[in-house]
Design brief:
Number of helices: 1
CATH class of the largest domain: Mainly Beta
Distance between the termini: 79 Å
Shape: elongated
Number of domains: 2
CATH superfamily of the largest domain: Nucleic acid-binding proteins
Largest sheet: 5 strands, mixed, barrel
Oligomer: single chain
Structural class: alpha/beta
Low-confidence stretches: 21-26
Helix content: 25-40%
Length: 110
């Protein structure tokens, strides 16, 4: 009877142990994805002013060899300057989250 119990219980215990390792590894992946959504600041020049789409406006930010599209709206906090200061070639500082090559701005300084 003990031998039958060990034969059945040992594989089940090992399977649960393996499952536990998978559960522990899960939140680490979520934390890494959350780190990618962390706010970051970019500095560069306005490359092009884009058309307004509803309540969201956008412009191209040229930072070295990279070009990003920056989206901002009425909820975006202007640290210095205002929307009037956005002209092609103007220096800007953008804080926000990056998704591919699009920045959702939370703070702008122009």
């Amino acid at each position: 009877m003990k031998r039958l119990f060990v034969t059945l219980a040992l594989p089940a215990a090992l399977a649960l142990g393996t499952l536990g390792v998978g559960v522990v590894g899960g939140p680490a992946g979520a934390a890494q994805a959350h780190a990618a959504m962390k706010a970051h600041t970019w500095h560069g020049k306005v490359g092009k002013l884009n058309e307004t789409m509803g309540t969201t406006e956008s412009f191209n930010l040229v930072d070295g060899a990279k070009t990003y599209v920056v989206h901002y709206d009425t909820m975006t906090h202007w640290v210095m300057g205002s929307k009037k200061n956005l002209k092609v070639g103007a220096l800007v500082s953008v804080t926000g989250t990056l998704t591919r090559s699009t920045i959702a701005a939370t703070k702008l300084s122009a």
